[in-house]
Amino acid sequence: MHCHTCKSSKDDLIYESDYWIVLLHKSQGYIGRCMIDLKRHAESLSDLTKDEWEDFISLIKKLEAALKKSFMATTFNLTFMMNDAFQEKPYNPHVHWHLRARYDHDVEFEGITFKDPQFGKHYDRTYTQEISNKIRTKIIQKIKANI
Amino acid sequence: MHCHTCKSSKDDLIYESDYWIVLLHKSQGYIGRCMIDLKRHAESLSDLTKDEWEDFISLIKKLEAALKKSFMATTFNLTFMMNDAFQEKPYNPHVHWHLRARYDHDVEFEGITFKDPQFGKHYDRTYTQEISNKIRTKIIQKIKANI
Question: How close does chain A come to B134, measured CA to CA in Å?
């Protein structure tokens, strides 16, 4: 069965742990937004092993610290959703998380000003910031250097 | 410093573990929606202890099973947000999670039909279902009986 997550490009790889990979999200409205994909195909949180959870917890700690160091992130929204996988049967979800850093200040990076106009409120799914592939690469490099 | 979570009413208590309490959320658009509050005041995921995480993981497993048994939940959205706590300084967030069960079918409960018109998509924060306190109590009892 087709699984988008299993087949996703690893071009935007930020970090790899024993059980998870961290990719820069295509939308960088909230600079540093990333996805955390389980390496194996598992369908729900209840399916995760103790080792996978422990690795995840350690990874979140590393990522929070790296995003604070890279862009002075103020706080984080961490979400487990997987709704897209339920648009048609047979459902085939693959465990992954979204991590959005949130900012109470503008972030100047490589000549671009990244803002968080919804700070203090729920993220806006439509909010984004157009950036070149060169800038994407630089964001990845910056986070990598701080992990 | 005032903390809304520390002072929240425990009237809607569904379950209590060593480190967390589970409360029925005021909005029941997605039937069974609940909040999972850390008992002590801690400000971020990176502050959680190993024991608190382990207890949380075990709790999520219990809740997923209970919501499947109670209302045949199809999948779950689990979110860590805390945006409200960042609306004014000094920020004073208190670690808590939101768990929304999502449904690919209508749920008939105590004469009310609970629907999930956004199934397969991001939850709608404005979507709700007006219910009486009596029904709220029955939802709590049902989940409790299945934990």
Answer: 30
Residues A39-69 pLDDT 10s: 999 999 999 999 999 999 999 999 999 999 9
ipTM: 0.96
**What one-character DSSP code corresponds to residue B63?**
H
Residues 6+ apart with CB under 8 A from A1: A90, A92
Residue B84 — left, alpha, or beta (φ > 0 → left; ψ -120 to 50 → alpha)?
Answer: alpha
pLDDT in tens, A80-107: 999 999 999 999 999 999 999 999 999 9
How many alpha carbons fall within 13 Å on the CB side of residue B20? 26
Task: Specify the 3-state DSSP secondary structure of A3.
Answer: coil
Q: Do residues B116 and B101 touch, judged by C-beta distance below 8 A?
A: no
Residues of A in CB contact (< 8 Å) with B are: 44-46, 48, 53, 57, 60-61, 64-65, 74-84, 86-87, 91, 93, 102, 104, 119-122, 125
User: Considering CB atoms only, which of B79, B84, B122 is closest to A125?
Assistant: B122
Give the minimum alpha-carbon distance from A134 to chain B in angstroms, rounded to a whole number. Answer: 30
Among the residues of chain A, which ranges form H helices? 50-71, 133-146
| Terminal C-alpha separation, chain B | 35
Domain B13-146 = CATH 3.30.428.10: yes
Tokens representing A25 are 């999200």
List helix spans (H) across A3-91: 50-71
CA distance A12 to chain B (A): 24
CA distances from A50 to A24, A54, B35, B51 (A): 26, 6, 23, 13
Residues in chain A: 147
Separation of alpha carbons B84 and A110, rounded Å? 30
The pLDDT-based confidence of B11 (bands split at 50, 70, 90) is: confident
